[in-house]
Amino acid sequence: xxxxxxxxxxxxxxxxxxxxxxxxxxxxxxxxxxxxxxxxxxxxxxxxxxxxxxxxxxxxxxxxxxxxxxxxxxxxxxxxxxxxxxxxxxxxxxxxxxxxxxxxxxxxxxxxxxxxxxxxxxxxxxxxxxxxxxxxxxxxxxxxxxxxxxxxxxxxxxxxxxxxxxxxxxxxxxxxxxxxxxxxxxxxxxxxxxxxxxxxxxxxxxxxxxxxxxxxxxxxxxxxxxxxxxxxxxxxxxxxxxxxxxxxxxxxxxxxxxxxxxxxxxxxxxxxxxxxxxxxxxxxxxxxxxxxxxxxxxxxxxxxxxxxxxxxxxxxxxxxxxxxxxxxxxxxxxxxxxxxxxxxxxxxxxxxxxxxxxxxxxxxxxxxxxxxxxxxxxxxxxxxxx
Length: 386
Known about the structure:
This protein is α/β, with parallel strands linked by helices. It is built from 16 helices and 5 strands.
């Protein structure tokens, strides 16, 4: 019977080969698969949206998600690329952290043009530096290149850096600029980042209408289903650690949940650090003491957990907010059964709808008014006397 887990030939391989295998190994766990499918579907049919905001806790697996989606977009674009070799399936840019209160759009445009392999620049970007183009000119060339390359999406990773401005007005300017580029080029922009992206949600009604939120949650200890999945993820990683003696991670699963805060990305990075150290020391397995040495500190986990819980609360629509909306729209609160199918049912005459035109409806209402008017009854008026 074939042995499950990592390829057994790796036991004879070098430390770098073993580490490279485990670093490249990913698990298509339920939350990742669900968000992956949602994001792909939304990119393929944004339904008028130009921005997609993907947010979640640090270490939840957003980078893995992006890589999965980029791979899928490359597969979907294979036929288009055969017809037109200039087509790019996607473009990925990382929003650079600010050194001041102003975002460097020139740097952003240069990086985007470099990622798109624009003919305007050389392999190292030296031509674009020598041209000394203005910010407006760089933006124009980026729009032109996006229309030429026709990527399915433009990913902006670490997009929370765009929100770190000294005023809300400037934050809106950032989003308006990206939305404008997306609209002009017809390329949906996917902003990926932490819960700081929530600052973008309600900057204006126009941005709210043209953006779609996708929340990438962590595994919650309150959910029995989440905990069962987390244990399975931990066991799967355990089976794929290329070391002579398989460690028993499940024995202390609660500790791995505690120090990863339920985030698969944090768990994976932790195991990579521990494996790299163990291979360097020539260890034959991972001990609990060794794993504890490479875990995040308690204070680090508290900080991550605090930010995650605050973000989860802000990302969730509350009943109070819904009641506020109903009051603004002057509608009576109605209970909605989200589990029931949307099936057409027979309605009473007063609630039935027809396919009559607006003109036919007006005529019918006028006729009804005439029929309902009392017969031989004069309109009230003062009669002349004498």
